[in-house]
């Protein structure tokens, strides 16, 4: 059976202490196997990256950026191949996979401006004959640990920007859909990246722990669940590393009584069920202000959901595909069952959908649950599936308090025609990414992505300006060339201009 290997020093290696099955979630069958790296394999990748760093950091930023430009073109030329890889191993429908890739390419485009992003600042005559300037210098070897749900986009958030900033990179992708990352590394080589600058190690906790504790790794970027994000952050920080760890979410949408209900329903349908809800920015809770708004939303959502199509990635007419594993399918179904047991109303039940020709696939259909209350398991925890919860609130303040009280603070939005309400919401909600009549407020590549509270560990978000700050050290240099022949005595007071 085909084995997905590592990419170390410009070569593909199948070195493995053991292997793990990679499933096609639409069929439930094993598609291939992935090599699981031993500690020694990860250490080899780190050593290779460390050896490549001195020459790469001396490479002019414009030359680095030209390689990223060529990489961007190769991504576009190979887009269909990449999307097929995403579909086969993740289950994402082809149009959704293309959307993921395009958002990833936008981050590559931002990295193409590396020469401009690294200019630093300069001030002349900050004191008598004294000039001062700052430089953005690379850290060294940095690592990325990425999740299964965006096998192309999230790695593209990380390594192009880190590399254009002059760092070398070790990527540990999810072992559930490993092929895309390996292919991206090969495209970087084709674009002209020197061997050793980008390395990919497939693996599990052994690989993660090695990256978190090896002193040669200067920084770690992570995206995944909150418990693992907290573990990554605390472990990396305890070993003296810079770390940004993005965790889970429970994204709420407030539906005001004056909302354009048809547009809200359309937005919620895509944002709740797209990618089978396996997005950290998925809208999973609709908080309706007033029973009238709630009844209208539930009625229109129920009607809209009759047309949802769940199926395999190969049929682009499908709206969304399977969830990633059988275990996760059972977990999502368990959350639906718990909601009913705890007093909520299952309006549309997506458990055990019939997908012709794919009887063994890991499918969950779109699910709508009304009368959910804070404290219920389905409300408190991240489901990560195609499930929309409806919570009823008596006022906007009560709705906002629910959001502010939740442990997650990743994304949120409000649907309203009232500008005053929208402004009050955006000013006072304790969430990092906010939408106004926009269901998925994912920042574009030249802004930065990051939530609040237990959705982000670390003080910097990912990509955009925060990404540049994360992957560089600012060095400030103050220089003086006194006039010849001038002799000055010692000054014991603190210097000022």
UniProtKB/TrEMBL annotation:
Keywords: NAD, Oxidoreductase. GO terms for biological process: L-valine catabolic process; thymine catabolic process. Gene3D superfamilies: Aldehyde Dehydrogenase, Chain A, domain 1, Aldehyde Dehydrogenase, Chain A, domain 2. SUPFAM superfamilies: ALDH-like. InterPro entries: Ald_DH/histidinol_DH, Ald_DH_C, Ald_DH_CS_CYS, Ald_DH_N, Aldehyde_DH_dom, MeMal-semiAld_DH. Its EC number is 1.2.1.27. NCBIfam families: MMSDH (TIGR01722). This is methylmalonate-semialdehyde dehydrogenase (CoA acylating).
